[in-house]
Amino acid sequence: MSEKFRSHTKKTTSKQTVAFLTNKWTFIGLLVLLLGIILPASFYLIATVNQETIAKQQAAAKSQLISQAKQSYFQKESAIQVTDEKSYAVDLRDTAIPSNIKEEITSQFQTITKKWNKNSDNFWLSYIHVQSYAPNASKVQAGITHYQWNIRKKAFVQQQQKKIKTIYIQAQTGAPITSQLLLQNNEQNLAVIRTLAQQALLDQASNPKAILDDVLAIPAFTWQTPITYSPKELTVTVAKQGALEETTVHLPYTTQLATALDLSYLDPSLAQSLTPKNEENQKQIALTFDDGPDPNTTPAILDTLKDNNVHATFFQLGSNSERYPTLVKRVADEGHEIGSHTYHHYKLPSYPLATIQKELTDTDKAIYLAIGKLPTLVRPPYGAVNATVAQTAGRPIIQWDVDSRDWASKDAEKTLTQIQQTIIDNGIILMHDIQPSTVTALPKIIHWLKQQGYQLVTINQLLQSQEKAYHEYFSATDERAIS
Ligand code: NI
Questions:
Q1: 290 annotated active-site
Q2: What is d(CA 340, CA 321) in angstroms, rounded to the nearest whole number?
């Protein structure tokens, strides 16, 4: 290597070194600047702008969901409070919520939301809605829906929806609708519920005969008996009784159940359908036949009724029903009503409670085994009734106001004459399907009554299904409370 060359090389090398150093530091400096300041700043700026955009999108999505919810839950915006204490929850509330209900539902909401993420990507909407549907009853509906932000869809997507069990409250006070309110604080009405629950238990049993004795032995209901109200039915939980396990039955609102209820807790159209239509001054008569069935006479009575297209009411003895179940079945199958006339035809008020109970229970059992229905009406022998009998029966007591005296005269002509002389509009005629003279008289009696313009009906029709337990009925217009 020549000196010249070397010196040249040296010169070049130092120049390159300077350039290199200059370049390196520029590069590092730029790199540091880029990595340390510009990039984070840019990211920060981008992120901030992005976050603001998302927040705006989220806010818009929220308010859209809120307004949709208002429309679907409440219809009327004016009646709503919107609270937004925390950014992740919006609570829509009807203004008219009783405070006890508000607390109850709020605590249920807290339980539900406990496991949900509380940040801006999570959002839930809850509502409480009170709606009156009967003069005395309102329903409280509440629910909560969880939404999560979906960045791609730029929308809150529904995660889960939970509805709280509808609560029914008294419209004025917000208090729960208890059996005591519904049954007008009248213990007698509990007897009506018990009777209906007994039939329902038998209806839903796979082998009703196996539990029949236990069902009939169910003790009187109390205000502690679980009776739950809903707008469509009562739900009753009957405690274990013998071989019968604790069972829940559902009692839809029928005319029979309605006789025990304060109807202001029911939807007005339902209440109206359960009350009589006040048909104008119809002339009706109910024929009733006691002491049967008897294979020697009852079939002929049934034939005459069928020939004349007339339905009547038979108050049958438990003893005879047990002996002639197929005859009891025929009476029911041909559209007649069957009531209990008790088992032995005792004058009940002279007997101890246990005997009265057994007289009724044994008859219920005999009639149930024959027709699959417990009798819903009771006629105590001789019309002899007192508070104990009425309470034990737990069903309407059916008397009469026209006594054919067929049992005394045993004469067809006299039976007809007696009815003709004592007939009363909308009355109840007492006869006996065990009297051969009544078999002879019946076609003439029906002919004469129709001639007089009477419509012949069953007890239930005459009383327009309004007959009540602890009341006795002598005619459609003569009803007396038994106390
Ligand atoms: Ni009798």
A1: yes
A2: 10
Q: Which residues contact 113 (CB under 8 A, 6 or more apart)?
A: 89, 124, 144, 146
Which residues does 368 contact at the CB level (< 8 Å), separation at least 6? Answer: 202, 208, 212, 374
Which tens digits make up the pLDDT trace of 430-483?
Answer: 999 999 999 999 999 999 999 999 999 999 999 998 999 999 999 999 999 998
End-to-end Cα distance, the chain: 142
> 53 by DSSP, 3-state: which?
helix
Read off the pLDDT of each residue in 187-196 and give the average, rounded to a whole number.
92
Active-site annotation holds for 344: no
For residue 28, how many other CB atoms are within 10 A of its CB? 10
pLDDT in tens, 7-19: 555 555 666 666 6
Cα 273 to averaged position of ligand 1 atoms, centre (Å): 35
* Main-chain dihedrals φ then ψ at residue 462, nearest 5 degrees: -60, -40
Distance in angstroms (rounded) separating the CA atoms of residues 405 and 392? 28
- How far is ligand 1, taken at its centre, from the CA of residue 291, in Å? 5
Ligand 1 geometric centre to CA of 192 (Å): 24
In 3D space, the residue among 435, 434, 402 whose CA is nearest the CA of residue 420 turns out to be 402
* Residue partners of 327: CB distance under 8 A and separation at least 6: 292, 293, 295, 298, 299
Q: Which of 311, 432, 433, 471 is catalytic?
A: 432
3-class SS at 374? coil
Which of 198, 201, 189, 184 minimizes the C-alpha distance to 257?
Answer: 189
333 vs 159: CA distance, rounded Å: 57
Residue 1 has what pLDDT?
A: 45
Alpha carbon 390 to chain centroid distance?
Answer: 28
Strand, helix or coil for residue 12: helix
- Structure tokens that stand for 256 in this block: 């029979």
Locate 183 and state its tokens. Answer: 């049954």
434 CA to middle of ligand 1, Å?
Answer: 10
The alpha carbon of 425 and the centre of ligand 1 are apart by a number of angstroms equal to 23
**What's the 379 CA to ligand 1 centre distance in angstroms?**
8
Amino acid identity, residue 110? Q
Distance 345 CA to ligand 1 centre (A): 6
Specify whether the CB–CB gap between 447 and 413 falls below 8 A: no
Of 290, 362, 364, 433, which one is the catalytic site residue? Answer: 290
